[in-house]
Every structure is written in structure tokens, then in C-alpha cells.
Amino acid sequence: MKLIVVFEKTSRLRHIGHLDLMRAMQRALRRSGLPLKYSQGFNPHILLTFAAPLSVGMPGKREIMEVPIEGEMTGEAFLGKLRPALPPELPCISARAVDDRHPAPMAQLAAAMYEAKLDEVPEGLAEAIPAFLAQSEIPAIRKTKTGMKPCDIRPMIYDLSLNGDALRMTLALCEKATCKPELLLSTLFDFAKLERPHMIVTRTQMFGEKDGVFYPLEEM
Amino acid sequence: MNDLENRKLEELLETVQRPARYTGGEMNAVRKDWNSVKCTFGFCFADTYEIGMSHLGMKILYYLINERPDALCERLFMPDADMADKMREAGVPLFSLESRAALNEFDIIGFTLQYEMSYTNILEMMDLGRVPIRREERAEADPIVVAGGPCAFNPEPLAPFIDAFMIGDGEDVMHELIDVIRDGRVAGLKRIDILRNLAKLEGVYVPAFYDVSYNGDGTLKSFKPNDPAAPAKVKKRVVKDLSNAIYPESIPVPYTEIVHDRMVLEIMRGCTRGCRFCQAGMLYRPVRERSMERLLELADKLQQSTGYEEMSLSSLSSGDYTCLPQLIQALMDRYRDKRVSVSLPSMRIDNIVKQSLEETQQVKKSGLTLAPEAGTQRLRDVINKGVTEEDLIRSVTDAFECGWSSVKLYFMMGLPTETDEDLRGIGDLAKKVVDAFYRVPKEQRAKSGVRVTASASVFVPKPFTPFQWAAQDTIDTVHEKQAALRQYLKLKNVHFNWHESELSMLEACISRGDRRIGEVIYAAWKRGCRLDSWNEHFKFDQWMGAFEDCGLDPAFYAHRERPYDELLPWEFIDAGVSMAYLKRENEKAKQTQTTPDCRHGCNGCGLHTWGVCDWVKDPPLKGKAKTSAPLAE
Description:
The structure holds two protein chains of two kinds. Chain A is of the alpha+beta class. Chain A has helices at residues 18-32, 75-82, 105-108, 125-134, 181-192, and strands at residues 2-9, 49-50, 60-68, 92-98, 109-118, 139-144, 147-152, 157-163, 166-172, 199-210, 213-216. Helix content of chain A is 22%, strand content 35%. Chain B is an alpha/beta fold. The interface between A and B is medium-sized, with 29 and 27 residues.
């Protein structure tokens, strides 16, 4: 069977890269004494997949990984073993036991919600958002492996709002189309002709989609 | 650090290289409430996180101090150049990884002195941490600055900056040192009185209580205590029983990759071989082994607390550990299922047992590193490296038969009495290693072919070695020798690495320097020197300028053979090995005479009078052949 595990990458650890986070989780799993599955080969490693890598510099409130194990175990029992093996800065929130045939979170991922905490809210930002969203097309320049490419990010923005000093956004995050929060933010501030204040962007939730409705990815 | 500084730090972390090394939060990092303890210790490693986190001594002392309910220990490292500049610009002080306390908020700050070329980093760290660099300039409220580690055996070059040095094994003296400072602070004693109490501890050197004078030719004239609390000789501290000594059962596990990212079992301290160039071999005497029971217990605890996938055995000469084959076997058996690999570093070539090699391979095949040190038997005899060409070829052949394909060979150039023939010998030896590979039957040896890496460092004479009086080759001579070696090592399958001769010369100046060298270090730092052991930051011309600023000549320290009757700056330290023994060994070197391993009989190095050396009274291996050590049941 396998476990769908929700954990937090706290702000203190936001500069840890994806590969380093993977290694930290592998070591935590080794400390836990859980019945893990290993890859074949000369340097076997623990089987473990993350729903989506988190950018360096970005904390994650509800990150998701899938951990296959040998035998049967409840989510509670799994949590009981994993929790003490994790540092306080990388707490694990929930674990759900599912069948091996359960689709991988990575395959079901459709979107993610982000929250940008602004050091100060520039005047005019709140007013700019409705106008920004009212555009039928939002041209942006996306950096890809093959160079800079123009694209329309409007269809990838599912939600954007300002709540106090926090900009909340829900953006497409899947194989077909991904809009990184950075691309949205730079486009938004360019559109509003405002200087960007310092901010920390956190990924707060990931979603899967069923019949046009988003559900928290860990519940899919 | 206050809120404003904290906010600035958060911002600048977004702009520096590899920010994760400044953020802490690792598994097993210890965070204590500052109000719950009476004494705070800021443990400083004067190099970057990646280097410092690989260092065993820091892990031992971090664990030891944090085990005390009345004290806490937090880690501070040298920031990389980009970070240091940005911190200074933004007004962010050097801070600890655990609670982001500024360096000057600690009661005690302690530097571990691992290599001389990190000394400018010490000044840079203090400056970034708002601690006055010169000890005389420190106010009552400033931290007490202490230092220990191998380079503390010649503390003089750092005497202007460090309040108290700990000489010898840190685990042995640390509790006493903390007690004295804690009690002094609690009782509101003046700084000078706390230092006076420290000077009374065995193994502690407080430079303020000693006066130095010089002869007209620049040599040391006298070195005397000026305070009744200060002993004329400072005797090093020794952990007598390693098995019962404290050892970390958990260590912080870094997120970012560091140089040695694995758990380390120190199986033994000290070395009985008596190589005449080797400072560690002299300083860490006597040899003490940790029992196998204790090691297995520690291995289990470390494995459970860290989750590391690799374990290495550490000592100066792991091959000499009495029960090495049994230990390796036991570790393999225990960790096969947990997929922990075991690697054996710093192996001496004359007793790598094939059995051990086969065991190692079961889990992971790490590269083989051997240190013949010199190219000819004559020169190996001079330096008392008791290894023959036959030993070497047998060892590598064994390894090649077990599937190894890459061998690193370490050599030194510029050893006393060295001639061109010895340099040619390095090339010959490398060639013979390659030949040994091709003599192994095709189906048995690695398919990848063989790769031999020969590294030649420049000999640096070190205090408390038989070569402490020797002259180092000049930079020009070293360059000539390196050019010759490049020719001799132009061989198929052989790669040649060499060291910067400028760096080695400075190392020679500092390692055998006196108090005045402290002023050179200060001047060099003022001229922008820091991170000197990193090629991209090393500024040799600035160092030369610093010598000029101070009116000192590097050749006086590095390239001059010192007479036996000269007072050496480190002579007031009693490291256990006697001057008489060191002279005797130096004379034997000149005669190309070897001295046997003291496991085969006491050579009277001086420690035999301390009652701490197990090999004096009842040498367990006396008369036995080296590779057939009696095996414990």
C-alpha cells in the first residue's frame, strides 16, 4: 500500500532546494523505522514521490508526497512513526493510507493556491486587480528551456484577490499548463504600473480537479 | 539579533549564493531557551558551513555542551564572501544558526583551530559579530574568546586575539572551562579575574599572563609568565579512556550537501607509527582505542538518530585498530538490511587486509586512498613512513582484484634531504600502480580501466614534530620541483594534482610563528584577506604586503633551519612528546634510520612518563607481525 502524506515546509526552510528536501525526507523516513520500499540497483534509495517540486525560496503549507510501504498500516500509525523523525521545521500534518492502484497525486494535480505576503501594500493595487482580471487576454513572457515565449496567462488564473497585506492566487499547475506565481506577479505589477514591494510567496494548497470542481489534492 | 536585523537578514538571504547554509533548522540541531541556562557558548568554525559541518570535533563538543542542563551551544560559521559583504552592508551581525543570536550575545565564543589558513576568517567573524578583535580591546560585557584544536599547540600567532586557549583533548577540559566562566559571570567577577581562574586550569593557556622578548636577530629571547596564576609550562589535556568518553549519539543532519555528509565513528585517537612529518601523529598521542561494544552501541544510536545512509570510520590510522576486521564484519551484518554503507578512510597501506576490502565492497565501493608520502624507500625511511613499495603494490593489487579501479596516491614534496631521484620515484611508483592493475586478470579487474591520481602537497614543517627545526623549500624551488614532477607524471591513466606553493609557505610561517605573526594576520585581514584556503579568494600579494607592514620576513619563519638551542615559540606547551625525543628522531632522520612502531616496544617519546599510554606497560601487540593482530573473540 501507499500513504499520501501532507507536510509543511516552513518559512525557515524555504531556501532548501527540491533535491535537498527529497534527501531530508528520505533520511527522516529512514529514522522512522517504517517498512519502506527501496529502488533496485547499485545505490538503492527509498521510493518516494512529491506531488510537485517547490521553488527555492518558497515555503509550502500543505505539501504532498506519496510513500509506498511494505504491508498494511493506518495513516495514524504511519504518522505516529514519522512525526518524531522529522525536525520541528518540517512537520507532517496528515497521512492517508490508500491502495497501490490509487492514482498518484502528481497525476491528479491541476492547480495550486499561493499567498504572497507583501511588506507593504502599494496604493492602487486593490483597484488594479479587477481591471487586470477583466482583460480577455493577459499576454506575458514565459521563460522556457528554449527561450522566452509569449503566452496568454488569463486562462491559467482561477482566482486572484487582495486580503489585507496578502495577495491570494489560484493558478494552473499541471503538465499541460502551469503559471508560476512569479509570472503572474510580475505581469500584474507591470499592468498596474506599480513598484513591487518585498514579499514572500507561500504555496498554501494544491488541488485536483473532478467534473470542473477543485478538491484538495490530498483528498482526491 | 533584533527584529530589524532579522528582517534585513531574511531579505538578503534571497540574494546570496546557497542561502540554505545560513538557515539552520536541521534535524537534531539543539534549540534551548536562553533564559533556562546560565552559560551560552557560541561554537565558531572559521570556514564555511559545508566544511565546518563535516568536522567531528565540533559535533563532539556541541553534543557535550548541550547535554549540560545549565548551558547551551549554538553553531556559527564563516559566511561566504558575498554573504559577509551583504551582512556588513545591511548591518546584520554574524549570527548563530539555532536562535540567530549575534556573536557578541554569547558568554563564551569558541573557535576550533583546524588549519592555519583559516585564521583571517577568525578575525572576520569576530568583526562581523561585533566582538572586538584584539583581546585588550574587549570590554567586561564582551564574550570570553577561547580556542582549541590541533593548531592551538602553537597558540602564539593568535595570542593577540584569543583570551584563552585549550590545549589537548577538548572533551577533557570543556566542562571545567565552562564552570569557571559560568561561576565567574554569575559572581560578577571582572574579566581579568575570570581569565586568572582559567589560567589555573590544567591545559589552559591565557596569553595575557605571559611576556615575550626577542633577540636582535629576531629569535625568541624569553617567554615567561607574569602572573602567579599562570604556569611556566602548559600541559595538554588527555582523555584517558576513550570508551567511556562522551561521544555524540545524535548530530545535526544538514539539508544542503556538505563535504563529509555521513555519520562518523571515531574508532581510535592517536597513532603509534611515528611518521616524522606528521603533527597529528605526535599531538594526539597516546593511542587510545574505543571498544567495539561502545562503537556498535554508538553506531546504532547514530544510525537511528540521523538516518544517514553512509558511515565512516575515523582515526589517524584505522588499519591499526586491533579488531578492525571484526568491527567491519559486525557493522556490515547490522546494517545490510538498512542499506547503510561503510567506508574506511585514511587507511595505511601496509595492513589493509583483503578481507576488509571484500567486506567494504559488499555495500559500497568507495575510492581507495593511499599515502606513500615519498617516492623512494630512502626518503620514506627518512620520514619514518614504514611502508615499502611491496606493501603498496600488494595493497593496490588486492584492491584491483576486488574490483577497485580508482586509486589516489598522496605524496609530499620538499621533504628534508629530498633529491630529484625521489621525485622521479613518485612517477615510478604511479607507473607501477597502473601496471599492477593490468597484471590482474581481465575478467577479475574492473572494466572501466584504471585511474591513478597522484597528489603532491608541499611539505610544511610543524611544531612538535621531529622536523620542527627544518627549513621549508623556497617558492622558486617548489615551482622547479613541480615542473619536474609534471614531467615524471606524464603517464597514461595517471592524473597529477599539486598544491599552491604560496599557500604552503604562509602555512609554514604561521604554524611555526610567534606572537608577531599575529600582527601579520591582522594586517592581512585589514588588507582584505579572508577565506584564504579558497583559491578564488587567496591574495598572496596582500599577505606579502602584510609582512612588509609589520617589518617581518617570511623567509625567517619558513625557509630557515632553526638550531636546537633556539627557544621555540611553542616550547612552553607540554604536548607529552619531549624535545629530547624529537631531536633524537630528527637526528635519526638525517642518518636515514627508521624507528619502529611503538606498538612493538616503547620508543620513549615522553608520554611514557604520563601514565596514560597503554602500550608502555603491556603492549598487547608486542612481537606480533603487523597484519596478524590477535583477533578478539
